[in-house]
């Protein structure tokens, strides 16, 4: 980025916390600098976890961009800073995030959503985040994507999960069943039984299961007549948007890249 | 067994459907006959699934012991019969069982529970079964044990799941949280966050998670003031009994071996 926050070059790769060995981060940064020149650098997300370059800790919610900028972890000699995550500890509730805080506070700053808004960031660990006037005040993490992946890769349902997942009649049926289900634990086995009894095509099981899990995730929220601002890639974003609309809310997809850029640039400005 | 249903010898092994290759069943039976003599044989459970010796099909609920005895699959030349499973297909609900039907109808016949009773058979796929006057009328399968195993073996929680699971304060806390939780999907991640934030000992995470899942399973039932007849090994049976009692029901552990013997002997008598 230039000093004004304009993006001069973007690069995406899959060198995430699961694929970079501990101790491998300085070499990753060196490779980026070899490509783009020796610029100061700032990062957010799992690079700041105990599995990443260095544990950057958490700041407690409520948090704003200035809170994050005031708690950066600086890596000596590397001209590199890591943004802390945000934690929540309130009564019985405990939750953490890393990286999503920069996106939602950036979206808020850039006006991509109203000053007070509910965000949803679907993924392995889906985040539901409330931002009020520039402050991240509350959030909940749902293990939706990870449970789907566990069922697809390792469960008794695995052999039935080779079909594509897309918005369609079976995904919608899964959404609706999730709203009336006694328990997701019985609905999951019901998908298997329906295939064994010839009541559900094997090719449709994955879409049904996705609908059940995403429906179970969304229905746990109070979303009636609320607008939910969704930050996700288009495929997963559209599934969550369908779920939100089906369950009585309104969904707006926002540009997660623009949101992150706005947030991280503002943190950079604040810490200079 | 002798003709009167008295057990003369019992043998347990771990040669289940996951460990016996398809095509390996005749050799398994031959090995048993080498040991016990060439007796007629009858079996129930996953040996009658499409992954077992031969698919023995299902009879629809409601089913009684005579229904099962009238639908045996006989393996030609092997002097061997397999009891069918029971299926349920009602509106949107689909469910199947194999093996549990012999246990609960046997328990009913042997007077191990009242003529009309609710049974719980905890396990990888926990069954909740209603028997009314000797007829298995309704049932629901919960994927409780399998989800626990997936989380323990393959999830982001795996590294925190090495502690023992037993009835105790943390298991009980998990049970209670399950009753008030918005969603089990958020509670699961909450266990990880609580460990990361130092609010829960790493050694206690497995017990808490077990309480959350078993609590989520039991609370989906209407068990207030009901007596639940539990068929399980003592360790898992005592966890479910604690859950039932904590959530307002009464639990009675019954002898699953005696129940199976009574059921399978009666089927044998009926088909002679």
From TrEMBL, chains A, B:
InterPro entries: DGOK, DGOK_C, DGOK_N. One of its GO terms (molecular function) is 2-dehydro-3-deoxygalactonokinase activity. Its EC number is 2.7.1.58. Keywords: Kinase, Transferase. It holds the Pfam family DGOK. GO terms for biological process: D-galactonate catabolic process. The keyword Metal-binding does not apply. This is 2-dehydro-3-deoxygalactonokinase. It comes from Novosphingobium chloroacetimidivorans.
């Amino acid at each position: 980025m230039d000093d004004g926050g304009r993006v001069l070059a973007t690069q995406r790769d899959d060198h995430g916390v699961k694929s970079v060995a501990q101790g491998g981060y300085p070499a990753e940064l060196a490779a980026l600098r070899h490509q783009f020149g020796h610029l100061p650098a700032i990062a957010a997300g799992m690079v700041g976890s105990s599995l990443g370059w260095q544990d950057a800790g958490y700041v407690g919610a409520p948090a704003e961009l200035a809170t994050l900028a005031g708690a950066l972890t600086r890596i000596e000699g590397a001209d590199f800073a890591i943004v802390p995550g945000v934690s929540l500890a309130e009564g019985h509730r405990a939750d953490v995030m890393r990286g999503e805080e920069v996106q939602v506070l950036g979206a808020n700053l850039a006006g991509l959503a109203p000053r007070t808004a509910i965000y949803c960031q679907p993924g392995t660990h889906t985040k539901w985040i409330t931002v009020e006037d520039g402050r991240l005040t509350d959030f909940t993490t749902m293990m939706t994507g990870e449970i789907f992946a566990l069922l697809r890769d390792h469960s008794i349902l695995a052999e039935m999960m080779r079909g594509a997942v897309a918005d369609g009649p079976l995904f919608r049926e899964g959404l609706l069943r999730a709203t009336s289900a006694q328990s997701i634990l019985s609905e999951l086995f019901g998908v298997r039984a329906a295939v064994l009894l010839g009541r559900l095509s094997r090719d449709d099981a994955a879409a049904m299961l996705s609908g059940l899990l995403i429906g179970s995730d969304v229905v746990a929220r109070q979303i009636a007549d609320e607008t939910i601002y969704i930050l996700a890639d288009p495929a997963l974003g559209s599934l969550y948007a369908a779920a939100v609309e089906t369950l009585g809310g309104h969904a707006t997809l926002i540009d997660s890249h623009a949101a992150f850029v706005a947030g991280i640039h503002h943190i950079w400005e604040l810490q200079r």
